Amino acid sequence: MGGVLQNPSYRTVKQIKKGWSSDQKYFVRTIDDKALLIRQTELSAYDQKVSEFNMLKTLTSMGFHTNQPIELIPCKEEETLYMIMSWCHGQDAEIILPTLTNEQHYQLGIKAGQMLRTIHDVNVPAKHQDWQAFYLKKTEYKIKKYLRCDESFDGDTLIINYLQQHQELLNDRPQCFHHGDYHLGNMILTENNDLAIIDFNRHDVGDPWEEFNRLSFSAKISPAFATGQIDGYFAGTPPKLFFQTLAFYFCSNIIGSLPWAIPYGTQEVAFMKRQAADFLQWFEAGTLPDWYLSKS
What we know:
It is a single chain. By secondary structure, the chain is of the alpha+beta class. The protein has 2 domains: about 5-85, Phosphorylase Kinase, domain 1; about 90-280, Aminoglycoside phosphotransferase (APH), C-terminal lobe (Aminoglycoside 3'-phosphotransferase, Chain: A, domain 2), CATH 3.90.1200. The protein is about 40% helix and about 15% strand. A 5-stranded antiparallel sheet has the order 1-2-3-5-4, covered by helices on one side. Helix 3 (about 100-120) runs parallel beside helix 7 and helix 5 (about 155-165) crosses helix 8 (about 240-260). Keywords: Kinase, Transferase.
């Protein structure tokens, strides 16, 4: 354990194993009974972590419920960087959601959508890369990698065709700050029954609608929550173009997911194949997913 974690004011230091992040995460209880989250990462990620720290400062200053950033400590001897934050008290939203009613699911989704809009309203740097060129290059790479891998899923031709035939959907898309991994697994239902958003370590800049690409995970758990997130974000019914563009981003994720899953074993591969099958079922009747509970 590094020097920062051996602070004499820390009564308890417990490593958190949950999640896919390369960061080492620790729950800390201080001798004066404060709860902290400490993220430890490589010093080479300094610029990214400064950006994350500043983003959290901006959001918490606006009353946004997330981890309050406290200190960023670089340790050159360890080639390590520590980010110290407050702890978000509460329960994982994806665990508590099954105990709630569909109406409560929808209302939490509304809140999640409103909070996502708040993130997207944070001022973005004036200079950023051309989104369409960047994303199409990324998607083409995913397609090539998929076609070279040893696994495949039914309906892959439909997905590849959609990606190749609807590239105009990315024309002149605006850009904003992204949370980077916005789904139920990174949401906490607080002790006051409010929603908190955690884990901004994958934050970046891009098309605001691309941020909904993780909604497939939430829709599988609760269509009412996923519907609420969309309605809350748009303060009502979304524009028709939204679902066409969302389908594009879902397709890109799906075609890239199988090559990604292979090194993690057969269970991950099987999970990604089920995700692809779910997607094809959702959009079987067109670009409006069947889990979206339209009020029209």
